[in-house]
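Our consortium's second objective concerns turning raw sequence data into structural hypotheses that experimental partners can test. To show how far this objective has progressed, the report includes one record in full. It was chosen at random from the queue rather than selected for favorable results. The single chain below, 204 residues long, was entered without modification.
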Amino acid sequence: MSFKSALKFLILSALILILPAAVFARIGVGVGAGKIYTDEQLRAGGIYDLPAVPVLNTGDETANYQVSVQYFEKQETRSDMGLRPAEEWFTFTPQTFSLEPGKVQTVKVTLTLPTKVTPGNYYALLEAQPMKKSVAGETSIGIAAATQLWFTIAPANFFQGIYYRFISLYSRYHPWDTIVLAVIFVAALLWYISKRFKFQIARK
């Protein structure tokens, strides 16, 4: 066999081995939580930690993923769904991430309700999507997997919304807020004492 023939044979063999992997390589996504229901009515102004959503790379190559809020068209007219919660109510941690094949990323979901909001039943899809860059460098999104979310917001006025926001912030950041209040109190007390009483230090 000549050198050129051997070289062609090696190149052809390499293509036969590599091309199937390139052709059949796929990106996949799955979620570990199919449905999320809240056990109690939520309050305007409240901040809630919803059940985390596990996102799984079901494909056979590493990919970047993002989590977002999606809806069904005219879902407000369906009795099994409800109103659309605004996208800005949700915080995903992390919102974008990279996953190797077979790996799982647990995404924390935080729901922050406005202090003034329409009461009623709400429905949304918490959707995980793989992001793949095209040849032109643009990010395209194809397949997706979603967790269905249902929750109910109880009727409340604006002042109740302010109250529940305060309670939520207090419970989330305690005892740091208590420490800050204590520092402010001590500083105010020292200022009051310094104004009320004058201390003189005698020099020897």
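The partners drew two points from this record. Confidence is low (pLDDT under 50) at residues 6-24. The domain at 22-194 is CATH 2.60.40.10 (Immunoglobulin-like). Both points have been shared with the crystallography group to help prioritize constructs.
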